[in-house]
UniProtKB/TrEMBL annotation:
It comes from the Bacteria. This is HAD-IIIC family phosphatase. Coiled coil: none annotated. It comes from Candidatus Enterocloster excrementipullorum.
């Protein structure tokens, strides 16, 4: 919904929140349902209403629990029947600097020891809250850090003197950050940055606090809710995966086909050229953290490559996975790019300075995000970074090794496709890859990636169940469950963790509650390698049969017959297409013929 895309009009959203919610709920979209507990240190009514709108727009239908005003600590530490029965999928603790009592802030008479004791008391308050919530609910927790205070008693000294409130809050923020670094299911919402971006005068408007106990003030609530929604959709696997970029007046100034590559605005010669170069630097940094870059440009390929090959261009042709420089409709190119990447078109973000092209892609029904990069018909390259950055399309909540290597993995896939075309026999092609798989029980070093896969994988996901890291850690420690991850590498590179299986044992049967695989390694034998290991490990536990389940979704039709192809027998099918399968392990014959399997000692 365009009204909810950044940059949005917060005042209009607050006025139209009921009608917007009604429109969103009637749009027929398929959404995941999540229970979100909001434990507030201030009034959270409008925050929850705004958050609901943004989450609905991002594919999540939320149900909320709200603590009473400033009862966040009591609800979290001592519990309530309502919260306990609610059983949240995620907990958000909404506190601000208003929740630090005046008696806890340092006074001008306090020495370093007194200040340290006060900070230790504030830290203990929150640390105890988090530990209690984690012990009871084992779900993701989002905690605000602290914004800068509304006034500075010590002036500029407030930032560095131990008695300054700003310094006191900054030290607490660092302790909060340290806890987040050590706990994989705990996340910090950086309202310190957000309040500065909104403006401390707007954020801290004292009227809203003293009259209505709103912190931040109501005009800042839409920005806070949007920022929070980006974190939540990232935790639940709703992030975008790839950028599809125009060239002329998007990556550089001017039209390369008309002006020639030597005359486009890029580099350091003019202010405008520097603006485009900074945008390219931003995109290069995004690539390094796992965002896939692609081109969709109305251009001759020769001209496109010439522009990207200029010595002062930050981005080079090899930085892109797919380059479509032609005169085909851009929505058609976009669909082909998604196909070549083997991801859905709804995982793409299309960036183009031309409003006509943006409109066509928006109306094509592809589900791709199309941010408004211009105001009217005027290109505003100086705003490109802020628009993409604040939109939160790729909001990370963790950075795994696979994230950092993703672009090179997709580049390697391109090499594999070329290799495949050189073979008439597919089996010979697979053997030529010299594939090696590491298969093992869930281990802490891969838990972030495993959780990420459970929330991102849609096409090869037989039950489409979603798990948080905390839930996976619990199941991995449960003797009644068998867990397996699979890593795959070959002579072109390492694909990282690409497959996950989770099975629950009941007497001599193992019920496969989750089986998923990254689509970039489909049909390479990893399915058989995982099944062979599963059968072996299940047999060691006295299991005589595997029981598999397939629950159809709009995206996983490709695995409808997967269990049949793996040798399972159909047991039942209901009217909705949900199927149950079984495989007797007596006399099981290994199926993998092309992958060398290394089993970790933990298996």
């Amino acid at each position: 919904m365009k009204e909810l895309e950044y940059p949005f009009d917060g005042a209009k959203l607050l006025q139209r929140k009921k009608s917007l919610k009604k429109a969103l709920l009637s749009d027929g979209r398929d959404r995941i349902r999540k229970k979100i507990a909001v434990l507030g240190g201030s009034t959270t009514h409008d925050l929850v209403l705004m958050l609901e709108l943004f989450l609905l727009d991002q594919g999540i239908e939320p149900e909320f629990y709200q603590s009473e005003y400033n009862r966040y600590y009591e609800d979290g530490v001592f519990g309530t029947p309502a919260l306990d029965s609610f059983g949240p999928d995620l907990i958000y603790i909404h506190t601000t600097c208003r929740n630090i009592p005046d008696t806890v802030y340092p006074g001008p008479e306090d020495g370093p020891q007194q200040v340290q004791e006060k900070r230790a008391g504030a830290w203990k308050h929150f640390h105890h809250l988090w530990e209690c919530l984690e012990k009871r609910f084992h779900c993701p927790i989002i905690q605000n850090n602290f914004e800068k205070p509304p006034y500075r008693l010590l002036g500029n000294m407030d930032a560095w003197d131990c008695r300054g409130r700003e310094h006191f809050l900054a030290q607490l923020n660092e302790q909060f950050a340290g806890y987040a670094r050590e706990h994989g299911n705990f996340y910090i919402q950086d309202i310190d940055w957000l309040a500065a971006a909104v403006g401390l005068g707007v954020w801290h408007d004292p009227l809203y606090w003293h009259m209505y106990k709103y912190s931040p003030a109501v005009p800042a609530v839409p920005e806070l809710a949007f920022n929070l929604s980006n974190m939540i959709k990232a935790i639940f696997g709703k992030n975008k995966k790839a950028l599809v970029l125009d060239l002329d007046n998007t990556l550089w100034g001017g039209v390369v086909g008309d002006d020639g590559p030597e005359n486009i605005a890029i580099g350091q010669e003019t202010g405008l050229a520097q603006v485009y170069s900074e945008f390219q630097q931003y995109l290069k940094a995004m690539k390094k953290q796992g965002i896939l870059l692609n081109i969709d440009s109305k251009n001759e390929m020769e001209n496109a490559l010439a522009g990207l090959s200029r010595p002062d261009s930050v981005l080079r042709p090899e930085d892109f996975i797919v380059i479509k420089a032609n005169w085909e409709p851009k929505d058609r190119n976009l669909a082909e790019i998604a196909g070549e990447l083997n991801i859905g078109t709804d995982a793409l973000v299309f960036v183009d300075d031309n409003p006509a092209e943006r409109s066509r892609v928006s109306q094509a029904g592809l589900g791709a995000a199309v941010p408004e990069m211009t105001e009217g018909h005027e290109a505003q390259p100086e705003r490109y970074i802020s628009i993409l950055d604040r939109s939160g399309f790729f909001e990370p909540v963790s950075l795994s090794r696979e994230d950092l290597d993703r672009s090179s993995m997709y580049q390697a896939n391109t090499q594999r496709k070329r290799q495949e075309q050189a073979f008439a026999d597919y089996g010979e092609y697979l053997r030529s890859l010299e594939m090696r798989a590491e298969v093992g029980k869930f281990v802490p070093e891969y838990m972030d990636r495993i959780a990420q896969l459970t929330n991102k994988s849609n096409q090869f996901n037989l039950t489409t169940r979603r798990y948080t890291r905390g839930e996976l850690e619990q199941l991995a420690a449960d003797a009644g469950y068998l867990t397996l991850y699979g890593k795959l590498s070959d002579r072109f590179g390492d694909n990282g963790v690409v497959s996950v299986i989770l099975g629950r044992q009941e007497e001599d049967s193992l019920h496969i509650e989750l089986w998923l695989m990254s689509c970039r390694v489909l049909k390479r034998g990893m399915e058989q390698a995982m099944l062979d290991t599963l059968a072996e490990q299940a047999g060691r536990r006295g299991v005589k049969r595997l029981v598999g389940y397939y629950y159809p979704t709009p995206k996983n039709g490709m695995v409808r017959e997967f269990y049949r192809e793996m040798g399972f027998s159909l047991v039942s099918e209901d009217a909705q297409g949900n199927t149950r399968w079984k495989l007797d392990l007596a006399g099981y014959e290994p199926k993998n013929e092309v992958i060398a399997i290394e089993r970790r000692e933990s298996v």
